[in-house]
Design goal:
The protein is an alpha/beta fold and about 375 residues long. It folds into 2 domains: about 200 residues, Periplasmic binding protein-like II (D-Maltodextrin-Binding Protein, domain 2, 3-Layer(aba) Sandwich), CATH 3.40.190.10; about 140 residues, D-Maltodextrin-Binding Protein, domain 2, CATH 3.40.190. It is built from 13 helices and 15 strands. The strands form 2 sheets. It has an 8-stranded mixed sheet with strand order 2-1-4-3-5-14-7-6, sandwiched between helices. Strands 8, 9, 10, 11, 12, 13 and 15 form a 7-stranded mixed sheet that branches. The chain is globular and about 70 Å long.
């Protein structure tokens, strides 16, 4: 299959961020956890996962899968989104087997693997229940429903001054200089997720360029991960963090009482982590079983209630689910469609044009009204 776009590795590096050191765990079928090099138990059928989320987040999901599938060991490689992408290409080029399942928040890189012919089709009763916008070519499957929110310091911003929309935030920044140096957001040039959120903002509303201009005028601080931004808001170093991952913010707010969360009422972007089964999967049957469990009502309930992520399955209810979020936010929710449209900015020229516009806005050199 010929790719629609050719992509320089440098662009991929910028989109995904730097590679982190891998941590690998073997979940044995007897319920124990050990280093991956440990000897397999007799009769075990392994499922090898490359995942970008911390092992601690997926541990409840893996253990629940094993309770339903007691013969399966699970080997979880906790690695960066870029390393997932690179490993799949490297292993396929060498003709060797690698992972059975890829779980990544880098939606664009997952879709590029699909587009370039590295993914295996999978259809089942479980995949048929996913929203149409969360599946592409029966090869890429969204399995979470995570909003992009605004975090703020409740102790330092009075309730009556809390912005509920981007226009509110624009007005507050235009009228108040107390936010100088106190605004945090993703650096779209170094964070793949930050770039994704910014391009989707631009698609939804021209107001993002007015907001970017005011961010620049107010000395915005740029970061590569939600955790750092939430830390700054919680301790008062920043008053507002724009476009942070809602599931992480909600988990942190349970313990840090100064942290407030805004689901923008004009629109709230929603991203989905993407699951892919590579064509080179050494255990395709086990891979299909794990993917079906991940998106089943049981797996989704665990994702919502134990993993701390918002589930996407329409039959799962509760605060941290698509159903619960829709009940609270209604039509303001704007899910990011899983499909070829997200590959546009992996084209080097298009990406650089967009980032130049972002830099001009930060420097006050773009018309915003």
């Amino acid at each position: 299959m010929r790719p629609i776009w050719s992509t320089m590795l440098a662009v991929v590096v910028l989109a995904a961020g730097s590679t982190a050191d891998a941590r690998t765990f073997r979940y044995n079928s007897d319920g124990t956890v050990s280093p991956s090099e440990s000897k397999a138990l007799a009769g075990e059928k392994p499922v090898i996962i490359y995942g970008s989320a911390d092992d601690e987040i997926f541990r409840p999901v893996i253990k629940a899968f094993q309770r339903s599938n007691p013969k399966h060991a699970v080997i979880y490689h906790d690695i960066s989104t870029l390393e997932i992408y690179e490993r799949v290409i490297r292993e396929a080029g060498a003709g060797g087997a690698g992972a059975d399942v890829l779980l990544s928040s880098a939606v664009d890189l997952q879709l590029k693997l699909v587009n370039d012919g590295y993914a295996m089709e999978h259809r089942s009763a479980e995949t048929a229940r996913l929203p149409e916008w969360a599946v592409w070519r029966d090869e890429a499957f969204g399995f979470t429903y995570e909003p992009a929110v605004i975090a703020y310091n409740k102790s330092l911003i009075p309730h009556e001054s809390v912005p509920r929309t981007r226009r509110d935030l624009i007005r507050i920044l235009e009228q108040n200089d107390r936010f100088f140096g106190k605004i945090a957001t993703y650096d779209p040039e170094r964070s793949g997720l930050g770039f994704l959120f910014l391009t989707q903002d631009a698609h939804e509303s021209k107001a993002i360029w007015s907001l970017a201009s005011l961010f620049g005028a107010n000395g915005v601080k740029l970061y590569t991960n939600t955790g750092t931004m939430l830390d700054r808001v919680a301790d008062g170093k920043s008053l507002i963090a724009y476009n942070v991952i809602g599931s992480y913010a909600e988990a942190r707010a349970k313990h840090q009482k100064t942290l407030g969360i805004i689901y923008p009422e004009d629109y709230t972007l929603v991203m989905s982590r993407i699951a892919v089964i590579p064509k080179s999967a050494p255990h395709p049957g086990a891979a299909r079983a794990f993917l079906d469990f991940l998106i089943s009502p049981v797996g989704q309930q665990i994702i919502a209630n134990q993993a701390g992520l918002f589930s996407i399955h329409s039959d799962v209810t509760g605060d941290f689910t698509m159903t619960g979020l829709k009940a609270r936010q209604g039509n303001a929710l704007k899910p990011i469609r899983v499909g070829p449209g997200l590959l546009v900015y992996l084209d080097q020229a298009k990406r650089q044009r967009f980032l130049r516009k972002w830099r001009r806005a930060l420097n006050g050199r773009i018309a915003t009204h």
